[in-house]
Amino acid sequence: MTDDFIVRRIGAQTLNTCLGREEMQPLMSEYALAKRAGSIVGNVLRPFRMNIDFQDPAYCRIHGHTLTILVENAGQQNRVRQLTPRLCAAIVAGGLPITEVEVRIIAKQPLPSLNLALPTSPRLPSAMGAAAITHVLNKIEDPSLKDTMARLRDALTPETTTRQQVLEEKLASESLQLALVRQRHTASLGDYDYAIQSLHILSEEEVRDYPRLEADRMRALHRRFELEDKKRIAQRAIERIDEQLDRINQALTLLPVDIQAAEAALVPVDHDATPTQHSAPRTSPAAAAAIASIARHTSSPLTRKSLMSHLDDLKPKHQDYVTRLNAGIQREKRRLLNLVTPTEAQKKRLILLLTAEKALEADPTQAESIADQLYGLDFD
Questions:
Q1: Biggest CA pair distance of the chain
Q2: How many helices (H) and strands (E) does the chain have?
Q3: SS3 for 245?
Q4: Angle, to 10 degrees, between the axis of helix 285-297 and the axis of helix 367-375?
Q5: What is the DSSP code string of 181-239?
């Protein structure tokens, strides 16, 4: 019986048995040498945190007297090349028969392409989208952008035969969804009203008698403000839904007669784009008197000029000056009279207000000088 027959007919063998054969000894010697070299390389490169196990033959191989180190990217390759002298010294100190070190990057295998055709769906027509583009088309100045938007409008415009049917179905679906959302917001409004009415907020007199209840009062007030904000948000949402439902009803009315008018009715009106008249600035005799006193006492001409430029806007007109000044005096006087234990400064302020009130009643022409005495800043 030949040796070849014996070798090929011995049956299944373990991996250790196969690797222990004589012809596998050179490979195993290189493997053991590569592990020793990888251990030395790993100790040298450990402070640089490359997250690579160099004892794995996939990253550290030996071919003759050359050690090949495999890394994952160019940054690691540059770092290892800079440390090549240190690696050679460590390998020589370890007693390995290696005279040269090479550094290479592991070639990443591309993922197999399955060549699957992705399903593509045609662009669905949208009458509302086409109407919205038509609404803004005249406002575009760039010719190329205008042509692109016009082509998009044409692509979105449904066919004439199905245009009315598509729009009617879309409006019916949208109106149903809006009605459901409005119903939820309406129910939440009732919940918010009930929660606000159920809150027990302590009065100022109760807190004054029991100061330790101040925290409970503040928590209750904060909860009420939070509920009121949520209620306002829900009310605003209902208003927006009602506006959209009105546009849908108008479009459904115009749809049998003129489909273009129905599509145009669905485009919401941008109220922010419409110019609005600016409200007149708030005037205040107190603010005007305070700024005038600052302008008189400032040492900077530029600051004085800037303050005086705003003085005319803050000062009320002559016919309203006395009325506004008297209203401010009465408001501050009521606040001081409601105090339980006023300080000395507050008592002096109340006397000054009463004196100014009598002087203003006796001679309204001295309103500006009275305002300067009340609200002018004292820089002495």
A1: 142
A2: 16, 3
A3: helix
A4: 70
A5: HHHHHHHHHHHHHHHHHH-----HHHHHH-GGGHHHHHHHHHHHHHHHHHHHHHHHHHH
Dump the DSSP string for 259-319.
HHHHHHHTSPP-TTTS--PPPPPP--HHHHHHHHHHHHH-S-HHHHHHHHHHHHHHSPPHH
The answer to whether 146 and 137 have CB atoms below 8 angstroms apart is yes
Q: How confident is the model at residue 19 (pLDDT cuts 50, 70, 90)?
A: low
> Helix axis angle, 127-137 relative to 160-198, nearest 10°?
90
**Per DSSP, what are the bridge partners of residue 60?**
69
The contacts of residue 78 (CB under 8 Å, 6+ apart) are: none
- Measured from the Cβ of residue 19, the count of other Cβ atoms closer than 10 Å reads 12
- Name the residue type at position 213: L
Tokens 């008189």, residue located? 296
Cα distance between residue 64 and residue 81, in whole Å = 20
261 CB-near residues (< 8 Å, 6+ apart): 254
b/e map 292-304, b = 16+ CB within 10 Å? bbebeeeeeeeee
Between CA 105 and CA 357 the distance in angstroms is: 91
Helix (H) or strand (E) holding 124: none
CA–CA separation, 322 vs 368, rounded Å? 9
User: What is the per-residue pLDDT across 314-346, written as a single tens digit (0 to 9) for each?
Assistant: 788 776 788 888 888 888 888 888 777 778 888
Locus of tokens 């009279």:
337
pLDDT single digits (tens) 159-204: 665 667 777 888 888 888 998 999 999 999 989 898 888 888 888 8
Closest CA to 289 of 215, 374, 166, 362: 374
- How close are the terminal C-alpha atoms of the chain, in Å? 126
